[in-house]
Amino acid sequence: MRYQTGQWCQCRFEREDGRYYTAVIEQDLMGDWVVRRIWGGIGKPAGTMLITHCPDLEAARSVLRGIQKRRLLRQYKQTH
C-alpha cells in the first residue's frame, strides 16, 4: 500500500457568525479514501467530526464538490 499524499486536500469555510466547516480528502490507515468533515464554532474547544468512506479518489472529490456547493449556498466563505 502506498499513500498518495499529493492527492490529499483540505477546504475550510467560515461564516460571519463565527461558524467554521473544514473538509479534508485523505487516506485512512488502510489506504482507503475518506472525506473528513469538522464543524463548529471558531474559538470553541471542540467541534463535531464525521468521516465518510469513499470507494476511490474520484468519489471523494465528488463528495468534496457537494460540500463546497452547500457551504457557499449557506453563506460560508471559503478561506482555503
Q: Secondary structure elements and their pairing?
A:
Blueprint: E1 9-14, E2 19-27, E3 33-41, E4 48-54, H1 57-73, E5 77-78
Antiparallel strand pairs: 1-2, 1-5, 2-3, 3-4
Write a concise keyword list for the protein shown above.
about 20% helix; about 80 residues; q64v53_bacfr protein fold; 1 helix; single chain
Descriptive overview:
- The protein is built from one helix and five strands.
- By secondary structure, it is of the alpha+beta class.
- The longest helix is centred in the last third of the chain and has 17 residues.
The pLDDT mean sits at 96
**Rg over CA atoms:** 13 Å
Tally of discrete structural domains: 1
Query: Share of helix among residues?
Result: 10-25%
Strand order of the largest sheet: 4-3-2-1-5
Shape: globular
The CATH topology turns out to be q64v53_bacfr protein fold
Briefly characterize the structure:
With 80 residues, the chain is an alpha+beta fold. The chain has one helix and five strands, in the order ββββαβ. Strands 4-3-2-1-5 form a five-stranded antiparallel sheet, with helices on one face.
